[in-house]
Amino acid sequence: MKNIYDDDEEEEVLDEDLHLDTGKEILSTGNPEIDKKIADGLPLYSMTLIEGENDTGKSVITQQITWGAMKNSFRVDLFTTENTVKSFLNQMESMSLDISQYYAWGYLRVFPLHVVGFDWDEKDMQGILGRLIRHIQQSKAEVIIIDSLTLFSEYASTDMVLTFFTNCKTLVDNGKTILITLHTYAFDEDSLVRIRSTCDAHLVMKKALIGDKYVMVMEVGKVRGARKTTGNLVSFEVHPGYGMKIIPMSFARV
After folding, report:
1. Cβ neighbours for 145, distance < 8 A, ≥ 6 positions apart
2. Preceding peptide of 148 cis, ω within 30°
3. Which residues are within 8 A (CB) of 47 and not within 5 positions of it... i.e. 6 or more apart?
4. Integer Cα distance of 176 and 142 in angstroms
């Protein structure tokens, strides 16, 4: 597996016939009920921010979007601080989203970013963010998912993070579709406002109480080019072996 920390490592090249150009201008999640809430899917060549507190379903949504990208023949690079390769593939399988063949064929590449026992500092983090941008720029993947940016915020200044988003926006203008998750608590409100303003789509993950149990809720903050999507809500549970189960929002209390 390629290591993004290596500048000199050559970019892995996939066979051109692995990817079929769908001609579509949206990135479907692969779940019709979720797509309906975000104008049939997220716009291609866009940057999406998915934010929320702990255990609100940020990774679940990115996993669902990964599945949608795979089903539409897009390549995906996933940079994760939340999983190892094995745990990510196992989680996908537990949601009835088996992508092992896509992974084996090279449609999906997973890059774990959390290095246990390594002491980061601001200089190191600036270098890593720079390498990450260069990797995305050189990658054959059309869809890039970073889950999550919270680790970086602990060791990077606000200006470094904002510069990273600006660089991502430039990559979007050059044909990439980028999704970034973060924990809301990791950034002050002023920084969040500036980060949100750079993004084309904004999804907020929350929890809601139904009876005596909590479910996950996705609120659509904005989607570029979509009409009347702001404030749309979709609530769901995740059942091992079954996957996402949509819950009628009328029963939920956020």
Report:
1. 62, 65, 66, 76, 77, 78, 79, 178, 179, 180
2. yes
3. 165, 168, 169, 172, 178, 179, 180, 198, 199, 200, 201
4. 5
Residues 17-52: b if buried by 16+ CB within 10 A, e if exposed? eeeeeeeeebbbbbbeebbebbbbbbbbbbbbbbbb
Segment 152-174, tens digit of pLDDT: 877 788 899 999 999 999 999 99
Q: Could you tell me where the DSSP H helices lie in the chain?
A: 32-37, 58-71, 85-94, 100-105, 122-138, 150-153, 158-173, 189-198
Of 188, 189, 204, whose CA–CA distance to 38 is shortest?
204
The three-point CA angle 61-62-63 to 5° equals: 90
Cβ-contact 185, 106 below 8 angstroms: no
pLDDT tens-place string over residues 33-86: 899 888 889 999 999 999 999 999 999 999 999 999 999 999 999 999 888 999
